[in-house]
Design a protein that fits this description.
Structural class: mainly alpha
Strand content: under 5%
Number of strands: 0
Number of domains: 2
Largest sheet: none
Radius of gyration: 23 Å
Number of helices: 6
Length: 164
């Protein structure tokens, strides 16, 4: 809907037909590529977890450091993003027996260290002007919101304790 109308002048029914054809082609490609992509994985879920495990540690590092560490630079964030893929691939190839979740945790720590190191040695310049000024934003919450948050956390803790 974003690309097709700007390329071709059409009547009202034409985008619907194009959408249906595009969906059919996407499904056919998914069917054709599913087996080779899944390879030796027993389930598609394992494949999805393996794939997202390559990028998730770096993304989490970027968010956490961006929120909680003011000295994080854009170069540090970029290093964490690239490092996530590189460290994950290296861990998968060099230590294939290392469990998946352990590798993700290790990559998270390596990305955090890399981002901190790069941010320390290449800090954000003061005149960059890319930072969002948060001092003028009111981030306070109401008492009812805080009470509801505590209630949800307690319910989740109870559920975990009960069924874990």
């Amino acid at each position: 809907m974003d690309i097709y109308p700007s390329l071709v002048k059409q009547n009202r029914a034409e985008p619907i037909v194009v959408g249906r054809v595009a969906a059919f082609v996407a499904m056919a490609l998914a069917l054709i590529t599913a087996k080779p992509l899944l390879g030796n994985f027993d389930q598609a879920f394992q494949y999805i977890q393996e794939f997202t495990g390559f990028f998730t540690p770096g993304i989490v590092v970027i968010f956490l450091l961006g929120i909680f560490y003011k000295k994080t630079s854009a170069d540090g964030a970029l290093a964490a993003a690239i490092g996530s893929a590189v460290f994950s691939l290296a861990g998968k190839l060099l230590f294939p027996a290392l469990p998946f979740i352990d590798r993700v945790g290790l990559v998270f720590l390596l990305c955090a260290g890399l981002a901190l190191l790069v941010s320390h040695y290449k800090p954000q310049s003061a005149d960059s002007g890319h930072a969002v000024a948060l001092s003028e934003i009111d981030m306070s919450t109401s008492a009812s919101f805080n009470a509801a948050t505590v209630a949800v956390v307690l319910i989740l803790c109870a559920l975990y304790i009960t069924w874990w």
